[in-house]
Amino acid sequence: MANLGFQIHTEINRPDRALIEAFSGIPVANIADNLNRICCVDSSIRPYNKAPLLGCAFTVRATMGDNLLFHKALDMAKPGDVLVIAGGGTLKRSYCGAIMASYAKSLGLAGFMIDGCIRDVEEIGKMDFPVYAKGVMPDGPYKNGPGEINVPVSFAGQVICPGDILVGDQDGVVVIRPTEAEEVLEKAKKQLESENVTLAGIAAGKGLPRPWVEKLLSEKGVDII
């Protein structure tokens, strides 16, 4: 019989690498705007260094405070994968520190996202390897399981599936379904170009056209006294 809740899936469908790389340099905010502002992980998940995150989701459903399946994922993931550790948001134990992050970087992995705690933040803060987490706790994890690898996971307000495209910067992380990636990419690029023109106009003293403010207020029936 199947050992439900304690399973490892070895195969995932990864998007074309060129499609993932096409999101490089596009702000998370622009991508989020073009996904109707509902596809970012909760703001409790924050970056612990300046390295931008871009890669393919490799998911781990972890028992709270236990990193046995996290270690197995390190042995399975491929270059360009982001290990997504769905730890239930526990702040009682860390899931990893500088050693695991350094090893993942040496393997060519693209980052960690952890719905839980990390440690060794001073060292991680100096690394050119993106680590996003909910908090910091020096107490380390157990290694008992159970858990699952490469299943859809609930992560800080989002459902993340193996193979989803993840983009992160200092604002946070957005989750992109591969089937929607090409469309949102083009829309986000156009928005970024438009915003750059607007910023250049402000810098040149042209101001910021704002007729929409009065229009919306009028439509909503505001009283101006």
Number of helices: 7
Largest sheet: 9 strands, mixed
Helicity, in percent?
25-40%
Report the strand count.
11
The percent range for strand residues is 15-25%
- H/E element order: EHHEEHEHEHEEEEEEHH
Rg for CA atoms: 20 Å
What is the overall shape? elongated
Which spans have pLDDT < 50 for at least 5 consecutive residues?
A: none
Quaternary state of this entry equals single chain
Average pLDDT, to the nearest integer? 97
The secondary-structure class comes to alpha/beta
Q: Distance between the terminal alpha carbons, to the nearest Å? A: 72 Å
Keywords:
225 residues, alpha/beta, two-stranded antiparallel ribbon, 11 strands
Summarize the structure in words.
The chain has 225 residues and is an alpha/beta fold. It is 29% helix and 24% strand. It is built from seven helices and eleven strands. The strands form two sheets. Strands 1, 2, 3, 4, 5, 6, 7, 10 and 11 form a nine-stranded mixed β-sheet that branches. A two-stranded antiparallel ribbon has the order 8-9. β3, α3 and β4 form a beta-alpha-beta unit. The protein is elongated, with a radius of gyration of 20 Å.
